[in-house]
């Protein structure tokens, strides 16, 4: 599996991507950045989407609080981590937050909602798919269809 992820930054789909015209905050999931050493490949993939501005979230190596089932077994600590991450994302004012882990998506959605921020959170592949289809990225209901 790591070999596939090391190559996905060079995927042909990016050549077909249409303009994103969006500011995207990218969250590194722990399993990719810490366990598999994957950080640059998702950024490379996203950089291939025309008119997409990639925003780096401060303290990127810090977990969002999902951590597998950590948010279920340690909800208070997980919420504190999620709220910290939401507090770092909010000042960036991105159109969308993107990450490569479904647990992170749910955690970030809940944390941003608690912070009163209506910022959609998508999986990296949902953003790529939306750009290939020419859909507006910052509207998650269209990006998910």
Q: Count structural domains.
A: 1
Number of strands: 4
**How would you state the average pLDDT, rounded?**
81
The computed structural class is alpha/beta
Largest sheet: 4 strands, parallel
Brief digest:
The protein has 145 residues and is an alpha/beta fold. The protein has helices spanning 2-7, 30-35, 40-47, 70-73, 75-89, 102-114, 124-133, 140-143, and strands at 22-27, 52-56, 96-99, 121-123.
Summarize the SSE layout with pairings:
Layout: H1 2-7, E1 22-27, H2 30-35, H3 40-47, E2 52-56, H4 70-73, H5 75-89, E3 96-99, H6 102-114, E4 121-123, H7 124-133, H8 140-143
Parallel strand pairs: 1-2, 1-3, 3-4
Offer a few descriptive terms.
145 residues, Rossmann fold, four-stranded parallel β-sheet, disordered N terminus
Describe the structure.
The protein is of the alpha/beta class. It is about 45% helix and about 10% strand. It has helices at about 1-5, 30-35, 40-45, 70-75, 75-90, 100-115, 125-135, 140-145; strands at about 20-25, 50-55, 95-100, 120-125. Strands 2-1-3-4 form a four-stranded parallel sheet, with helices on both faces. The protein is globular and about 40 Å long.
